[in-house]
Amino acid sequence: MTDKAVIVVHSGDLDKIYSAMIVANGALSMGMDASLFFTFWGLQCLKKNGLDKGPLSRMNLLGLGKWMVKSRMKKANVVSLEKLMEDYKELGGKVIACEMTMEIMGIKPEQLNLEWIDEYGAVGTYIMEAKDAKITLFI
Amino acid sequence: MTETNIDVRGQTCPVPLVECRKAVKKAAPGDEIVILGTHPASKKEIPMACEAMGLEVVNVEENTDKEWKIRIKK
What is the ipTM of this complex? Predict the structure, then answer.
């Protein structure tokens, strides 16, 4: 069986979404399987055009910090989150959306980027994904 | 047998690794992939990924101080 990385994406903060997407793409690139379980603030990022809408986890400064970091990232030629998600899907990465979060936050499936989502699930889905995984992270 | 060339010069983490993996996925057994890049960590990590996936690294060249070229066989 192929080794697997499973990440719970709980945060919607821009810097943490970057970490999750880079680690997940890295796992696929090293020949592993990967699953991302989007819940709570992370799930907000699966909304249409929502991937880069979160604040910075620190020093957001009402958006000024985020703007500065984004311009530095552009200068350093860091790829966009949209592109990271496209590559993730192209390499066979799996996206799971948390149903309970959708219920609590009143998110309808049609508000989400449906073409990214492979499965809707709850904690049992995460456990079944993670129990045989070599890497599991909570971001 | 075909040869695929990938130019990731100027690209940073994780693009060189990801583009390499995408090319490997599309290639047929026996095909070769040549990756040209400048990102320092990827020069080490692409051969690591190849080892993990059981692919052959044919050679690693350094063109100038910053540029490297890695040839892989699927």
Answer: 0.91
Known catalytic residue: B13?
yes
**Could you list the residue range(s) of the whole structural domain that residue B69 is in?**
3-73
The predicted-structure confidence for A6-28, as pLDDT tens digits, reads as follows 999 999 999 999 999 999 999 99
Domain count, chain A: 1
Question: Look-up: residue for tokens 């690591």?
Answer: B48
**Pick the catalytic residue: B13, B18, B41, B58?**
B13
Residues contacting A40, CB < 8 A, separation 6+:
A10, A11, A12, A98, A101
Rounded Cα distance between A15 and A54, Å, is 9
CATH number for the domain spanning B45: value is 3.30.110.40
The A residues from 69 to 88 touching B (CB cutoff 8 Å) are 76-79, 84, 87
Interface test with A, best of B8, B11, B15 (most A CBs within 10 A): B15
Model pLDDT for residues A34-76, shown as the tens digit of each residue = 999 999 999 999 999 999 999 999 999 999 999 999 999 999 9
Residue A26 at interface with chain B, using a CB cutoff of 8 Å: yes
CATH number for position A42: 3.40.1260.10
Q: Residue A29: its chain B contacts at CB < 8 A? A: 14, 17-18, 20-21, 49
Domain range holding A124? 4-138
Of A56, A85, A86, A87, the closest CA to residue A72 belongs to: A56
